[in-house]
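Kindly inspect both lines:
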Amino acid sequence: MSFGQRTTNGSLFSIRCLFSRSNDLPNRDLTRKLARISLESEKVTIQKMEAKDLEEVLFIESSDSLTPWSRDMFVEEMRNPLGYCYVMRRKDESKHPVIGFMCFRNIGEESELLKISVHPAYRHLGLGKELMKFYIDFSRERGITTFYLEVHSSNQPAIHLYRLFSYQSSGMRKKFYQGKWDALLMTKKA
């Protein structure tokens, strides 16, 4: 992987990442530019989600989802024997220690991506791609050959991300989100 390495037990994924300490800048483009210039040696890790992460996860979830999960839904998914929940965490003691997360289920040779999101202050820096790389590598190592997900049909940035990882449109669920918006079904064969 161009951005990092797995540890010997595969439980932790470290990447070098560029981002800004200032999350309160009014100009999003300036924030991204500063993010790419500053803190080139900053490290982030991808680790199993824990109860202590839920406040930050819930903030990220509420900023991104049409149908946000509750605390109980995340706790239930973390306890599910088929479920996997991970966070992308900054190693420093910053304002936002959790900057992304994902939840997915692996059953037999199939996997479904349930949730993936990056903190609003850290979007457009390639962190979503790193979460996707981790997810696909993690699942392939466990024998997964088919990947599924659903995405709001108008969420072009997410659809673009999934297509970068060879996901193809495989159907549509009409009025899936809150009985109003369609979900695009996408599939990837390994």
